[in-house]
Structures are given as structure tokens and as C-alpha cells.
Amino acid sequence: MSISRRKFLRQTAYATSALASASTLAACGIFDTNPQGSESGKDDVSRPVTQDKQTLYIYGWATYVNNQEVLDGFTKETGIKVVGDAYDSNEVMLAKLEASGGRSGYSIIYPSDYMVTQMRDLKLLAPLNKKLLPNLSNIDRNFLELPHDRGAVFSIPVSLGTTGIAYNVKAVNSIIGEEPTDWSYLWEHKNKLRITLVNDPREVMGMALHTLGSSYNTKEPETIEQAFKKLRELLPAIANFTTDAWRDPLASGDLMMCMAFSGDAISLARQDPNIKYILPNSGTSIWTDTLAIPRGASNLEGAHAWINYVMKPEVAAKISDSNSFGTTNKLAKSMIPDDLKAIKALEPTEFMVAKSDRITKLDPAVLQIYEGFWTRLITGLG
């Protein structure tokens, strides 16, 4: 079972206040409240700090730590048993590692790209020993020079994801008569659409900023306010702000269109040919999941062996298949299943990358501005 890959607020700076107001906002039906329940369910688990070298404890998104085929393959190849615990937000992972003071018991983690920057600045990551990673040559070099960790000093990007539009083909064609190609479609047909936007301030505000010709990482209060006002125009069409609870309503036609993260949307599209996932023509948000070693990891040798194993083309292809993400592994691309390769939006083209943005870390003062407008937006539905 897979939980939503991106169900989190983008920065710790406003996570606390968001949680404090969640019960009030949930009463309005605004936030999704994880109807599937938390699949991590292991936040209180303690792992031994001093470990034998034949056991590797990893902490990551459920799609990675619950992939039994991949875990068993590593054990068969190395003799090292893998114990995986799942989290459902980067912030949960960060808090646990911070509280441990470098003694979490985990030797592998899966932070998202922006979180690598934050953890690096907090000195929570151990530098990688590239001599123990011969399969690093399989990773497309473009991904090894990303702004969050230039030179891949602390992390290796393994999965490539995007934010785009998932829609019900029959519902859209029967009511509007033409399928979407860009974010602008939401505003052009707002009086006919029934949609959801993800429960993620930086993604939603960033999308609106992008449509205004600004960056997802804009710092100017006036420009952020313009994005808020633009989004407010969509309120009549918005059924909910949810990261997870859109799949069944979209498949049934109760919803026509949803802002969604690629892994979730493509997984649904692979099951239901009436669902499509597209990347907006004007560009979108692009992100990566990474592998990293936390400071204080006790099994450094096993951790590097895991990273090297995951970078094997056949293993990377299995991971891509199971979570419906793109892969950074250039040799794995030809090995992923045909039905997944056939989805054009699986990986952005170079042209799309040039028009798109990566969400980056912002100062707390700027994040408070985003949070203020986000709260005003979502309470507009209550």
C-alpha cells in the first residue's frame, strides 16, 4: 500500500502553526485528514544505536521501505537484513533525527530535495564516500548538480516527480468539450469545473505565482498577494484542498480534475484508462526524492552498500515501476514497463524542465507570508 508521496507542508517554519489550526480547518472540510490513516505508524519505534553490521535500519517513504522485492534482493546480494520504517512527511523524519542528537538508529533516510538543504544546514547528514558507490555513474549527471546539493555531497537523487493535472477524460469532454493543456484551463472554465488542489501551500501558491509569470519561490509580499487573489477566483470550483482523497471521486466522475503529484496520478492512470495525467504546457513544479545517510549512522558500510544497490539499473527500474515515478538512473529508463514508459508525463522533457521550477527553502519570515495567505484561502471554503 502506498501513501501520498508529498503529504506535508513544505517547511518546518510553519508546520507547527498549521497543525495547531488543523482541527478548526478540518471542520470546514478543507484539509484532507488522512482518511487512510498514517501508514508509518512507527513514529514511536526506537532502533538500537549500536548495531551489528548485518542489519540495516532505513527510514523513508512507504513506497521505498515497503518494497519487499527490493529489500529481499539486497539481503540476498549482501547478506544484510533490512528493517524499514515509514514516515508520511519530511518534517516527521526531521523531528525524529533532530531529537535523537545523531543517535536515531537509522543508517539510511529518504529526504526530499528541499529537505536535504535544511538537514545539511543543520549538520544532520554525513558526507557520502563516493569510493563505495561505483554505480553512481548510472545516475544522469544533470541530477548530481541540483541546487539543493551540488556535487551530490550528501545525497543521491533516485526518483523524479512532478506536480500536474489529473483529469477524468469522459467527464471533461462531456461538460467542457476540450481537454486541458495548461493551468490556465482552471480559470477559463472555473464556472463548470469541480476540482481539488493539493493540501500544500508552496505547491498551490507556487502554481498561481507561476501563472502570473513569477517564481514558485517568490519572496515579494505584493506578488504573493496577487497569487492569493488569483486563487480566490477559483473557490467556486474547488471541492477541497486534498493531497490524497481525490482518487475515487475523480475515477467516478464526481470530480473532473485534480492538481496531483505524479506518482499518485500516474498510478491511477495505469489502472484506469479514463484518467489522464498531464504536465501543464507553461511549466510546473519538479522535485526529486533522495537517498542520504544521517549523521551518527552506525552502519556506514551497509548504508553505502544500500545506496549502491539501489543505483543498479534493474533495481531502479523496479522502484520506478512500483511507485510510478520517473527515475534519475539513465540505464534504468529502458527497463521500466512499457505501460509506464508510454505515459508522456512520466518524466519532463528538457523543454519542460526549462519552463518549470523547483521549490526551495525560504526564510521563516517569507514562509509566514505564504502561510497567512494560505490560511485565508482555505478558510474561504469553510
TrEMBL record:
GO terms under cellular component: periplasmic space
Region forming the signal peptide: 1-26
Q: Which cellular compartments is it found in?
A: Periplasm
What are the protein's UniProt keywords? Periplasm, Signal, Transport
- List, alphabetically, the InterPro entries matched: SBP, Sperm_putr-bd, TAT_signal
Chief localisation class: periplasm
- One annotated GO biological process: polyamine transport
Which Pfam family is one of those matched by this entry? SBP_bac_8
Kindly list the positions annotated as binding spermidine.
114, 200-203
UniProt entry tagged with the keyword Signal = yes
Against SUPFAM superfamilies, the record matches this protein to: Periplasmic binding protein-like II
Any one GO MF annotation of this record: polyamine binding
Task: Write down what this protein is called.
Answer: ABC transporter substrate-binding protein
